[in-house]
Amino acid sequence: MPVLPTSPDTTLHLGGAFTIERAAELQALLLHELQQRTPQAINLEGISEIDCAGLQLLLALRRQLPSVRLIAPSPALQQMFARLRLNSLLDN
Fold first, then answer.
1. Band of the pLDDT at 4, cuts 50, 70, 90?
2. Dist. CA 83–CA 28, nearest whole Å
3. Any idea where the domains of the chain sit in the sequence?
4. What fold does the segment set 3-89 form as a domain?
5. In the chain, what's the furthest Cα-to-Cα distance?
6. Is 79 helix (H, G, I), strand (E, B) or coil?
7. What is the pLDDT of residues 22-76, one digit of tens each?
8. How buried is residue 40: exposed, middle or buried, by Cβ count under 10 Å (0-12/13-18/19+)?
9. Which class for 5: exposed (0-12), middle (13-18), buried (19 or more C-beta within 10 A)?
Protein backbone atom coordinates (compact mmCIF):
# COMPACT_ATOMS: atom_id res chain seq x y z
CA MET A 1 0.00 0.00 0.00
CA PRO A 2 1.63 3.27 -1.07
CA VAL A 3 -0.12 5.58 1.38
CA LEU A 4 -0.68 4.40 4.92
CA PRO A 5 -3.14 6.06 7.26
CA THR A 6 -1.77 8.81 9.40
CA SER A 7 -0.41 7.45 12.65
CA PRO A 8 -1.36 8.82 16.07
CA ASP A 9 1.68 11.10 15.97
CA THR A 10 0.19 12.62 12.79
CA THR A 11 2.90 11.30 10.50
CA LEU A 12 1.82 10.13 7.07
CA HIS A 13 3.88 7.13 5.90
CA LEU A 14 4.47 6.74 2.16
CA GLY A 15 5.76 3.61 0.49
CA GLY A 16 6.00 1.56 -2.65
CA ALA A 17 6.88 2.66 -6.15
CA PHE A 18 6.31 6.33 -6.93
CA THR A 19 6.41 5.90 -10.70
CA ILE A 20 4.47 7.05 -13.74
CA GLU A 21 2.58 3.77 -13.87
CA ARG A 22 1.04 4.57 -10.50
CA ALA A 23 0.98 8.39 -10.59
CA ALA A 24 -2.80 8.76 -10.98
CA GLU A 25 -3.47 6.19 -8.25
CA LEU A 26 -0.97 7.79 -5.88
CA GLN A 27 -2.35 11.26 -6.52
CA ALA A 28 -5.90 10.08 -5.72
CA LEU A 29 -4.75 8.30 -2.54
CA LEU A 30 -2.77 11.32 -1.36
CA LEU A 31 -5.63 13.67 -2.10
CA HIS A 32 -8.04 11.45 -0.16
CA GLU A 33 -5.70 11.19 2.83
CA LEU A 34 -4.98 14.93 2.90
CA GLN A 35 -8.70 15.75 2.78
CA GLN A 36 -9.10 13.75 5.99
CA ARG A 37 -6.34 15.53 7.92
CA THR A 38 -3.12 17.47 7.53
CA PRO A 39 -0.14 15.54 8.88
CA GLN A 40 2.71 17.22 10.75
CA ALA A 41 5.26 15.12 8.86
CA ILE A 42 5.45 12.79 5.87
CA ASN A 43 7.73 9.77 6.30
CA LEU A 44 9.35 8.77 3.00
CA GLU A 45 11.35 5.72 4.09
CA GLY A 46 9.03 3.21 2.39
CA ILE A 47 9.44 4.57 -1.14
CA SER A 48 11.17 1.77 -3.03
CA GLU A 49 11.60 3.55 -6.36
CA ILE A 50 10.85 6.95 -7.81
CA ASP A 51 10.85 8.55 -11.23
CA CYS A 52 10.03 12.04 -12.48
CA ALA A 53 6.27 11.50 -12.06
CA GLY A 54 6.78 10.46 -8.43
CA LEU A 55 9.06 13.42 -7.90
CA GLN A 56 6.34 15.71 -9.25
CA LEU A 57 3.91 14.31 -6.67
CA LEU A 58 6.36 14.99 -3.84
CA LEU A 59 7.11 18.49 -5.11
CA ALA A 60 3.37 19.21 -5.34
CA LEU A 61 3.01 17.99 -1.74
CA ARG A 62 5.81 20.31 -0.65
CA ARG A 63 4.21 23.23 -2.49
CA GLN A 64 0.72 22.49 -1.11
CA LEU A 65 1.92 21.85 2.46
CA PRO A 66 5.09 23.92 2.97
CA SER A 67 5.03 23.56 6.76
CA VAL A 68 4.76 19.75 6.69
CA ARG A 69 8.14 18.09 7.24
CA LEU A 70 9.41 15.51 4.71
CA ILE A 71 11.40 13.03 6.81
CA ALA A 72 13.34 9.75 6.59
CA PRO A 73 13.93 9.62 2.82
CA SER A 74 14.51 6.15 1.41
CA PRO A 75 17.81 5.40 -0.35
CA ALA A 76 16.07 5.72 -3.74
CA LEU A 77 14.76 9.13 -2.77
CA GLN A 78 18.08 10.27 -1.31
CA GLN A 79 19.82 9.32 -4.54
CA MET A 80 17.37 11.19 -6.76
CA PHE A 81 17.29 14.29 -4.57
CA ALA A 82 21.11 14.35 -4.41
CA ARG A 83 21.42 14.07 -8.21
CA LEU A 84 18.95 16.91 -8.70
CA ARG A 85 20.35 18.96 -5.80
CA LEU A 86 16.98 19.03 -4.06
CA ASN A 87 18.17 17.91 -0.62
CA SER A 88 17.08 21.22 0.87
CA LEU A 89 13.46 20.10 0.41
CA LEU A 90 13.95 17.26 2.89
CA ASP A 91 13.75 17.63 6.64
CA ASN A 92 15.96 14.71 7.65
1. low
2. 28
3. 3-89
4. Transcription Regulator spoIIAA (3.30.750)
5. 34
6. helix
7. 999 999 999 998 888 889 999 999 999 999 999 999 999 999 999 999 999 999 9
8. middle
9. exposed
